[in-house]
Amino acid sequence: MKQLIVALCCMMVCTFVVSPAFPQSDAEFAKANANYAAGHFQEAVNGYETLVRSGEWSANLFYNLGNAYFRVGDFGHAILNYERALALDRHHPEADANLRIVRDEARALEMQSSWPERYFQFGSLSQYSVVAAVAFWLGMFCVFRLIFGRRRSAAIIALSILSFSTFVIAAFAIYKLENGNNGRALAIVTGTGVEARFATADSANSVLALPPGSEIKILSTRGDWIYAALPNNLRGWLPAKSAELVRL
Amino acid sequence: MYGVRASIPVFFLTLTAFGGANCVFADAPRVTAVLSNSEAAVGQTVQLQIKVTGDRAAQAPENIVIDGLEINRTGTEQHFEMNNFNVSSSVIYNYTILPLKSGTFKIPPQTVRIRSSSLRTPELTLNVADSPGRSSSSRSNRNLQPGDADKLVFAELIVPKKIAFVGETVPVEIRLGFDPRAHPKLVDGPEITGQGFTAQKLQQSQENLETLNGRSYDVVTFKTAVAAARAGKFEIGPVKAKAQVSLPRTPSTSRSRSRSPFDLFNLDDPFSDPFFADPFGQSERREIDVESEPATFEVKPLAANAPPSFSGAVGNFTMTTDAEPKNVQAGDPITVTSTISGRGNFDRVNAPVFEDERGWHKYPPSAKFKQDDDVGISGAKTFETVISPNEKKQALPLLAFSYFDPLKEKYVTLRSDAIPISVQGGAPIPPNAVASQPAATAPATVGAKPSPKPQDILYQLTERPPRAQSFTPLFACPIFWIAQLIPLAALLGFAGWKIRQAKIDNREARRIGALHQESTDLLRRLRRGEVSPQEYFSDASRAVRVKTALAKNVDPNAVDAEMAAATFRLDESSRAQLRRLFERSDELRYSGRPNGTGTISPENRREVLELIENLRV
Q1: Which of A71, A227, B90, B219 has a beta carbon 3.0–4.6 Å from B53's, enabling a disulfide?
Q2: Minimal CA–CA distance to A32: which of A13, A15, A17, A51?
Q3: Looking at residue A163, what is its pLDDT?
């Protein structure tokens, strides 16, 4: 039992240490903030975008970039960057508040989450990953204990069942959150006057008009067109350049 | 065989029951009304038929009074049909309409009483022109044999309009006449040839006996509708068909023949042949081609500047609109039902369009067409469109439907009335959206409060985390999977340790088992007493060692008399006895012969045996 506890502790320590460290361009960030404060919103956008391109991502960076886009009237990119901020930090209150304001302003359409997604949203993908790993290994140790033990303890049996049940639920939550409407395929319409169409042609009949900032889920890509699940359970084709994935 | 015979009545009973059930569960009565032609000239009669299906006890109106039309009931027909054991009956009430003056006449819905209930016919429209020469018809008598067949068959193509517009549906009538004495049989149905127009599927509407130029013909009437695809002068037809008729063989010139009873005036009638007096005489069936003369008509282009909601509909239509439910939450679906009724090219009638879709989600509409005539140019097309409001609304957006009216020769746009609804929840109505509402809905939005000034966004943040963040979820990071090696290694180590423990336990168990077995064997041999004194004392001392080894879990060879006595806590006498046993055993083992007698007395054996058996922890 002592070995089991030691092994679990080692695993927990290893799984939490995952974020690599990158050098911070604080000066560039401060300069962009100063431009924003001075009302030079386009310069602020350029500064923040430079930091984004360098890969120094943080929730606050995307949040500030969303604010700057909002000030220049680009609601689609503003919503996109608020969504990115929330993808990095689910509990970013400022990004959440501003996202609501800009969505109301832009009349952007939102994807409806399925009921498993709604229930599983209280945890993040990383948290479910850790829970799944811990539950799996705990269950495996219990099974080995049952196999090699001289007597079958009811407590060990119950613990193994509980562990594997937790593992299955956590794995299902990861699958639903990753592949659901707000998963890795979530994209935001950034173009204006975008209409989803029945076919990959500008002359094809329109399925739905998508205001900037509307959420879509990209299902497949064909050339310059993407096939996407749309709000209200519709599907249609829209130009690839008119939407951007939330997750970089 | 008996089984087959027995099953035949069962089969017929089943069929009868099935058919009876179908008869019992007949459809509810329904009524339709059609005009033989919706275009007529003054003085040109048109037939009106009111058909009641599903009940023969119907009472249709005797007289229909409309100013400018003289309508008289001319007769009643009863029809029975059996299709797949489904028996249906219908009654057709025929009326003749004689237009007295020109204009567009609406024949209002007529009430048909059926037992205790009543049904109403659809409203019909009859356009009456001034001049009787508006319609063009062509009649052709085609020769089978010179001088013969031209009197047996004819085909006629009747196009009631000489001028039409692109896309306008023009009803066309085809009449095929056959001399009944030729026992005609239509082999290949009539077909309209020509290019530049589309034609509906031909429908056989009626068959009656007519007298033309003093001769009787079975006239079969087919109806269809054509629509021109482009402007210009068109030639429709000719209509082509193939029929089989019975003809007398070519008469011999030398053969005298009697006159046919039909040929009263000694006309050149092929039925004057003796074949018709003797049907079993010589005659032959022949296939003949029937062809009409083509008809021409001019197609004019539609006027320019078509409204945005025009989808190609040409004719005369009306529109009704309704929506359910009218009290919803934002995002809830509302089904808008719009019905386009009238006469025209319904295949080009698309769903009415919403004039202002802002703030609404619109789904593709569904369409259902119910035709009132044989060829589908009169009826009602119902569209159901589901829309859902994104925000608070007080009325549905107006629906618009445009069509080209060929009589007025201009576009007509129909607009729905404003349908008030109540939408709860969602964002308030933006001011610009309220301003853009049409006048019909403006009063409903006057009382609405102006929306508040949009909220401003929150401030910038100046802090940055010490480490860059990643969008990659934890389970997709390599470090996560590398970390899983640690519990995996621990698990494998745990398993290895357990396996080793099991192996060790297994070896010890085998050793103890062997000792037990040895102890049992030794005691058995000691009880038998058939061995020599040397073997006896050797076995006895070995039994004591084994018992001690089992009790103390030690090697039996390391056990001596003192250890055994201490293990079993023997008293002094037993201890001395045990010592003697070990000495005797050593003496016999090392000297080869005992000191004293060469045999062991029974008392001595018993004492040794009791001593060993009493060794217990």
Answers
A1: B90
A2: A51
A3: 95
